[in-house]
Amino acid sequence: MSNKINVILVDDHEMVRLGLKSFLNLQGDVELVGEAENGREGVDLALELRPDVVVMDLVMPELDGVQATLELLKEWPEAKILVLTSYLDNEKIYPVIEAGAKGYMLKTSSAAEILNSIRKVYRGEEAIETEVDNKIKYHDSHPNLHDDLTARERDILALLAKGYDNQTIANELFISLKTVKTHVSNILGKLNVDDRTQAVVYAFRHHLVSQDDE
């Protein structure tokens, strides 16, 4: 029986898979046992091969990384998933971490960092890229940023969660478009997020709105 860490790669970019494959095959303690080019194939392959670590992209056809992670862990709760992506957005980070991924690394990380992350996830440890970890820690250490939101700002945040644009919110609340823009700007500042999508992610994560509000 091999003592190597068995890994499968799930990524829709062939060049990414090829680059990782070339590097991993040079490692004495890692063995690439399979590849998939979309989330659906990745889930099926992982359930078939039961690798030690699944290296998973986020944005893919069929199933994205979050959906694939949820589906895989539902069928195989012991699966160890390391997300490897180009995205540093909050709306990408939080859902897949909450879905159960053990690691989140950027494709800009060095090959050595990615390898070390595979080893950490294999050992059952978290492997979170520094920039991602800082984002998570900041919001986890400031869990009540929303306490400063006014009642009107909370109303607007709930409408943002429904996907309403500024004009629709203005019509819904019988206020001017300029006032809505001011409130949205205040919401972003108080929650320390960059855009309205991140504000909605924060709202869901902190249970300020429910999925039924979408």
TrEMBL record:
4-aspartylphosphate: modified positions? D57
- PROSITE patterns registered for this protein in UniProt: HTH_LUXR_1, HTH_LUXR_2, RESPONSE_REGULATORY
Domain Response regulatory: from-to ranges: 6-122
Sorted UniProt keywords: DNA-binding, Phosphoprotein, Transcription, Transcription regulation
A single MF term (Gene Ontology): DNA binding
The organism sits in which domain of life? Answer: Bacteria
- Pfam families on file: GerE (PF00196), Response_reg (PF00072)
Question: SUPFAM superfamilies under this entry?
Answer: C-terminal effector domain of the bipartite response regulators, CheY-like
Any one of the GO BP annotations: regulation of DNA-templated transcription
Provide the HTH luxR-type domain boundaries.
142-207
> Can you name this protein?
Response regulator (Homolog to RR03 Spn)
